[in-house]
Design a protein that fits this description.
Elements: H1 15-23, E1 30-35, E2 43-44, E3 48-49, E4 59-60, E5 64-67, E6 81-89, E7 103-107, E8 119-122, E9 126-128, E10 132-134, E11 144-145, E12 156-158, H2 166-174, E13 179-184, E14 186-191, E15 196-197, E16 208-209, H3 212-222, E17 226-229, H4 237-250, E18 253-257, H5 268-274, E19 276-281, E20 292-296, E21 299-304, H6 308-327, E22 335-340, E23 344-345, E24 351-358, E25 361-364, H7 373-376, E26 380-384, E27 390-391, E28 396-401, E29 410-414, H8 418-427, E30 431-435, H9 437-446, E31 452-455, H10 466-471, E32 477-491, E33 508-511, H11 516-532, H12 536-541, E34 549-550, H13 553-561, E35 567-571, H14 572-577, E36 581-595, H15 602-612, H16 614-619, E37 624-625, E38 633-635
Parallel strand pairs: 6-7, 14-17, 14-18, 15-16, 18-21, 22-25, 29-30, 29-31, 33-34, 33-35
Antiparallel strand pairs: 1-13, 2-13, 3-12, 4-11, 5-7, 5-8, 6-10, 9-10, 19-20, 20-21, 22-28, 23-27, 24-25, 24-26, 26-28, 31-36, 32-35, 32-36, 32-37, 32-38
Helix pairs in contact: 3-6, 4-5, 8-15
């Protein structure tokens, strides 16, 4: 009787060598389209840009009464202000109701704000009979959520490579997307051995139940992959070849178990070698030494040992990290300590406040309970107890993380712009963006938190941004000149308005006090007042809608599109994304502030090169443009 020959392990590698081989396999998940309800845990294969504003109109954020804020300034419990009720507005309807001075309209949470009204008085601060009595004053924009204040049309809301969870799927639903392209990693599972029997069947003599097909498939699912199990095959080379070929046609990765050792009946490595490449046969690890790394029929293949414990050991040590990395699988939540970056007021009840966590600082993300991106932009949340009146900047907080934190190469805090998305793509850097407005960005530079801030603040002198470094007491920082954004009148395409002076005889929607756009508007109106020989206050009080304020460019465009106003001032991008006409009146300067000590850092140099590049000039969104000062460095 001739004893079959045994073979030695071939190409035995160390753990580090095995991991290096796996990194070089070049596995790429396929892009598949799925419904959003089936997308949880999967990874975006494309960036998602919103085609609409969210919300698409100015809406009430509380049940109450839509009013002119100025009508309530003298209101009090002992001296209620009386207003005439002119209607009632329910959610889901676009009423042609106009609220004039001295009037109010009942309004429900989520309903469209009527023309003229610029605030909502909560129902708790009113009483009614035939008229409405207001017992508490409100300010302009109070209890109003403006169009585009959550998401602007044209804004990139999710980046390629984002792992989709409940928050991200909520964002997709908010912008009307039902199907989305994701990375789908199909993982083929092939168990070998004549002795294997599928669970649920009667176990015959000499047989064992197939454990690996089910345990490995479950492990693949836990890592975010899509397991496809094939029929158990015997240790027959022709049969193995057939099933491996079928798996390669349908899968991105193939996992086999059994027939990987050096015994006479173990033939998996030979089938792989004859139909591909064996990169490693045996890993210097216990348990799990008889493992294979290779390619078969053009697809990556991992031969796991037959023993269940060994198979799972090799899977967890080498394959699971690969699948998790390809699928962007997040780890378990953890808690970490941080310092609060800005003041937070208590709501007299326990509050879970979303925060962005960067370099030990927790930035509150406060867009209101109606804003889905308050969660999508957050890294975790802090719990504010009901008995805490206020948390101050620098206070220690505990952050419960939503997932694993990504360490950014650059931290941006400030006023966000669509042009920044383009810059981030060109640099290839991991840029973490905290949208905190221009003032928030300057504050982050002052306290040493941010690497870069985006600002567009206009001084009363007519100079952009530079005077504000001294005003915010910022030293040892530079301004890197950015690009211009076209500001102008936003009107409907059929409008007869042709120049800025024409708004005097029209109804307008204004921007909020303190915004750069509001400053431009007032500068133009002051010029007209001087030309006409009238007082500025007299002129603006004669303009219908001057005191009606919007917080975003999108809110201005939405008011014009919905015929709530005839005109407003905003950026060209907002006008064009809403299908409206744009009449340019000025250029706004959007610049970047950087600590001087970081100016020579690799990351900032890459950022400046991208800003000055021809690629950025060509890709910058319409309505924005680089100019001769783009990339110029101004030292404070």
């Amino acid at each position: 009787m001739i004893t079959p020959m045994r073979k030695e392990f071939r190409k035995l590698v160390t753990i580090e060598e095995a991991k290096s081989l796996i990194e070089g396999l070049g596995i790429q998940p396929a892009a598949i389209e799925v419904n959003i309800e089936n997308a949880a845990g999967l990874v975006l294969a494309e960036e998602v840009v919103s085609e609409i504003d969210v919300p698409p109109f100015n809406r009430a954020s509380m049940d109450g009464y839509a009013v002119h804020a100025r009508d309530t300034y003298q209101a009090g419990e002992d001296r209620p202000v009386s207003l005439n009720l002119v209607g009632s507005i329910r959610p889901g309807m676009n009423y042609d109701l106009i609220v004039k001075r001295g009037e109010a309209a009942e309004i429900a949470t989520g309903a469209v704000m009527p023309s003229g009204a610029d605030a909502v008085v909560m129902v708790e601060y009113t009483r009614t009979d035939s008229s409405l009595y207001v017992l508490h004053p409100v300010s302009i924009n109070e209890n109003v959520m403006h169009a585009g204040s959550d998401i602007m049309a044209g804004e990139r809301v999710l980046k390629r490579g984002t792992v989709l969870g409940a928050r991200e799927i909520g964002v997709l639903a908010a912008i009307g997307i039902r199907t989305v392209k994701v990375h789908g990693l199909n993982v083929g599972i092939v168990s070998t051995g004549k002795e294997l029997t599928e669970p649920g069947h009667k176990l015959e003599a000499g047989k064992i139940y197939d454990i690996n097909s089910f345990s490995i498939a479950s492990a693949v699912k836990e890592c975010g992959g899509l397991p496809l199990s094939f029929a158990v095959v015997s240790d027959d080379e022709a049969e193995m070849k057939e099933v491996l070929k079928k798996a390669a046609e349908n899968c991105d990765i193939i996992l086999t178990s059994g027939s990987t050792s050096a015994g006479s009946g173990d033939v998996m490595y030979r089938v792989i070698e004859e139909n591909g490449t064996v990169l490693a046969h045996g890993i210097d690890i216990k348990p799990g030494k008889p493992a294979i790394i290779g390619k078969v029929f053009g697809k990556s293949v991992f031969g796991l040992p037959g023993y269940p414990a060994s198979a799972l050991t090799i899977f967890n040590e080498f394959v699971a990290p690969l699948i998790r990395k390809l699928m962007g699988k997040k780890m378990e939540r953890i808690k970490t300590s941080a310092k609060l970056a800005s003041r937070v007021r208590s709501e007299a009840r326990t509050q879970l406040l979303p925060v962005g966590l960067v370099r030990g600082w927790a930035y509150p993300i406060e867009k209101g309970s109606g804003a889905i991106t308050a969660l999508a932009d957050a890294d975790g949340f802090i719990e504010i107890p009901s008995d805490a009146e206020m948390l101050e900047p620098g206070d220690g907080v505990e952050v419960t993380l939503f997932g694993e934190l990504e360490t950014p190469e650059l931290l941006f805090v400030g006023s966000h712009c669509l042009g920044l998305d383009v810059l981030a793509d060109i640099t290839g850097l991991r840029i973490r963006v905290i949208n905190a407005g221009s003032s928030g960005g300057l504050g982050a530079i002052r306290n040493g938190t941010a690497d870069i801030a985006g600002i567009h603040l206009l001084d009363e002198s007519g100079e952009y941004n530079i005077p504000f470094l001294e005003r915010f007491k910022i030293k040892n920082a530079v301004i890197i000149k950015g690009y211009l954004r076209e500001q102008g009148l936003i009107v409907r395409k059929e409008s007869l308005i042709a120049k800025f002076e024409d708004i005097l005889a029209s109804s307008i929607i204004n921007r909020n006090t303190g915004s750069g756009t509001r400053v431009i508007t007032d500068m133009k109106l002051r010029e007209i007042a001087v030309k006409k020989g009238v007082a500025f206050e007299e002129l603006v009080n004669s303009i219908n809608g001057y005191h009606t304020e919007a917080k975003t460019h999108s809110a201005v465009a939405a008011a014009v599109r919905l015929k709530k106003s005839d005109a407003g001032v905003g950026i060209r991008t907002a006008a064009e994304l809403n299908g409206l006409k744009f009449i340019k009146i000025a250029d706004e300067e959007y610049d970047f502030v950087v600590p001087a000590k970081l100016l020579e850092s690799k990351e900032i140099r890459i950022f400046i090169e991208a800003l000055r590049s021809e690629e950025f000039r060509e890709k910058i969104p319409h309505g924005m443009r680089t100019y001769e000062r783009t990339g110029e460095i101004i030292r404070s």
